[in-house]
Each structure stands twice: as structure tokens, then as C-alpha cells.
Amino acid sequence: MIDKRVRGLAEAVAGIKDGSVVLCAGFGGAGLPDALCEALVEQGARDLTVVANNAGTGRQGLAALLGAGRVRKIVCSFPRSSGSVVFEELYAAGKIELELVPQGIISERMRCAAAGLGGFYSPVSVGTRLAEGKEHRVIDGRPHVLEAPLPGDVALLAADRADRWGNLTYRKSARNFNPTMAMAAKLSIAQVRRIVELGDIDPEQVITPGIFVDRIVQVAF
Amino acid sequence: MPLKRRQIAWRAAQDLADGAYVNLGIGLPTLVSDFLPPDREIVLQSENGILGVGPAPGANEADPDLINAGKQPVTLVTGGSYVHHTDSFLMIRGGHLDLALLGAFEVSEAGDLANWTTDDPGFPPGVGGAMDLAVGAKEIRVLVEHTTKSGAPRLRRQCQYPLTAARVVKRVYTDLAVIDVTPQGLLVREIVADIDFAELQAKTEAPLLAAPDLKPLVAPAV
What we know:
The structure holds two protein chains of two kinds. Helix content of chain A is 21%, strand content 27%. By secondary structure, chain A is α/β, with parallel strands linked by helices. In chain A, strands 1, 2, 3, 4, 8, 9, 10 and 11 form an eight-stranded mixed beta sheet that branches. In chain A, strands 5-7-6 form a three-stranded antiparallel beta sheet. In chain A, helix 4 links the parallel strand 3 (71-76) and strand 4. Chain B is of the alpha/beta class. Chain B is 14% helix and 29% strand. In chain B, strand 10 and strand 11 (177-182) form a beta hairpin. The model of chain B has no long low-confidence stretch (mean pLDDT 96). The chains are: A alpha/beta, B alpha/beta. Chain A binds chain B through residues 27-31, 53, 76-82, 87-88, 91-92, 98, 100-105, 107-108, 110-111, 122-130, 170-180, 207, and chain B through 46-50, 63-68, 71, 76, 82-86, 88-89, 92-93, 122-132, 135-136, 162-166.
């Protein structure tokens, strides 16, 4: 029997090791696994590398994980946004390393890892500072740079509905990075608004099939 | 009179073709969504996975799960759809968008775009989707005020700030003019009333050419 439901947030984040690469979904305030991030603060793993589009807002969720000093490095496209106070304090104090990656390249690097591929050539960032030090190659007359796959040890996800097999649906723009991150990590953990019976989700509506999901926990958010 | 920001957005909207798939960058370009010509179907894409962005929701109708690239609440038009991030950037990078309207710090006479960092040490850099959009959409147009608040030109011989992409911008809408980037240089298509070409040149570092059919730049009070 397959049952990916866990009893609570502590069980959801159990076993995450120090030094893990944690893929953290969400864009702006949508699709953020705030409850899982806060559970990870309690769990205590440290020296983490976090991959996330934004570097958290306010003091909750990802910002709480940053503020607790558990994150050594963040891989991010747009760290500074309205309310990113914790990140800005850490950055100004030199207490966090930032790897800035174009938004679509973060996503495609994770997809590449998920698909078992060794990298890809992209025209994005050619001729800019972000291409410095990367292998260049001209393809069909256009310069490209080599981008490496970006796998995660853990993915923290936020979805709308789940069943015990781990099939997930999302709402509107809260889908964002969740499906790619679910596929790109060894251990994918989803906080969901509602767990439904197996079979209640129309197979045509499943966005993330359960093969990519390891643990689900129902929380209000 | 220089155009106001909403008038720059209005002017850019007039050039959107029926049936076009268009991405609006954050800031000034986002205002373009308020001025889509009603007789044309224009599909707005948002990098966070929306194809068919609609107007801002009414009071108390905002859905925190439905926001645009600038993290503001939006709606979905009839016929719109949602995709995940990797597919959204596949649209962006793969040449599937007809046009991206972007903001800028500077544009060079060759069409180089600088819009992601000013290297201010107190200001952590953010690139977002700018570099993907700049190389991926079929055409890039920029909406920007002609000069900085202190009067420094934003249309440069070469960008002073780090580049987002080289040789990508095709047209620039400013509060003073509509200017095309051409192999011969910056070609002024339209200019606001009550400044002349010499005054426009004085506010522009790169040399300007006047289009043979140079027109007045006019926009309604919006």
C-alpha cells in the first residue's frame, strides 16, 4: 500500500541533513511552503543551500529559516523584494552567500537534473557578467553558455489538493516552481490544503504525479 | 509637455497587434495592461505562469494565488490558462512570445539593454526573468523616462550599467519621444510638442537621427 501522508509537520521534515540543498517553491506570496520552512527551523538542519526565486518576505516561512541562521547560501533570481528584510540584513552583514541566476535558468537547471541530463546550452546571459567563467559555444551562429543541472536533496512544496499516492493539484499562479522542484529533488515534501480520497482527483487534472512526491502533510494556509 | 508615465504606457499599447502574445515587465510596462486597444485580442503572459493576464481585481476580490510578475493581484481572462515556471520560461526563451515590453536603466545606440543592477553596494542585485525575456521574445521594446531624476541621459552610446543583453532593443518609448534602434543609429519617429530636435538631442547621449516623416508624440490625458 502506498501512503505518503505523514502525521504532522515534524514528521514531514524529519531526516533532512545538515548541508542539504533545499529547493523551496513559490513566487512572491503564492505557492510558498511556509509551514514546512518553519518546521525545518524546529527540525534544526543547518548549513543549508536554499534554491528559491525570492529570498523570503517578512519574518515567516523562508525568512524564518534564513533568520535562524540555517542557510549558508541562497540560489535566487530576485532576492530583494518588498519585505525581504531578513535577507537584506544577512546580505549586508556578509552572513549569506548569494548565487544570482536568471529566473528561467534556475527553473531549467532543475528540470535538467530531474530529466537525468548533464546540462544545456543557453543564450541567456551571454555578454553579461552572469556569463563570466562559463563555457561558451556557438550553436547555429548564436553564442550560448553551458548551464549545469541543479538537483536538490529536498524539495519543499505547497499544493492545493493531494491524495495518498502524492498526486498534486495547484491553484492558479501558485503552481509556479512547485512541479519542477517536485521532480528535481531526492526527497519531495508537500504541504497541501486538502488531502482527498484516492480517485477523487480527475487524472486529467493531476499536475504533479505521485511518483515525484514522497511526503504530504495537510496544513491550513 | 513630457508624457506622464501612464501616457508612455498608453502610447506603447497603441502599437500592440491583434493576436499578439506579449510579456509586460514589472514597473512602467505593467501599466500597459490598462490601455489595451479594445478592438484587439492581445494575450498578456506573466513569467510566473499565467497566459492571459486580466485586469486588476475589484475590491475584496483579490486572490493571493493569482498574482503577476510584480506580485500584484490580477485576474485571468476568459480563455486564459496556467502553466508552471519551466513551461512559462520555455514560452519566453523559445521565441513563442511576439513581444516583451521592458523597463530599463539604460539603452545603448546599438540596442544593448541594462535593466538589472546599478551595482549599488547597499542594494543586492536581482535579475528575475529579465535576461530570459531579453534574449527570448521575438521583439524587445523598452518603456523608460528619457533621463534620470537628476537629468542624466538614459539613451547612451554605451551602457554604463551592467548589461542584461546585447543588441536586443528595437524601439524605445520615453516621455519625450518614440525612437527606433536601427543599423544607422537611433531614429526618432515621434517627438512631443514644445521641445525641438536639438533639445531632445541635448537630453540624449547617443546621436539621434530624425525620421523623414517625424511626427508629433501625442497621448490623451489618461
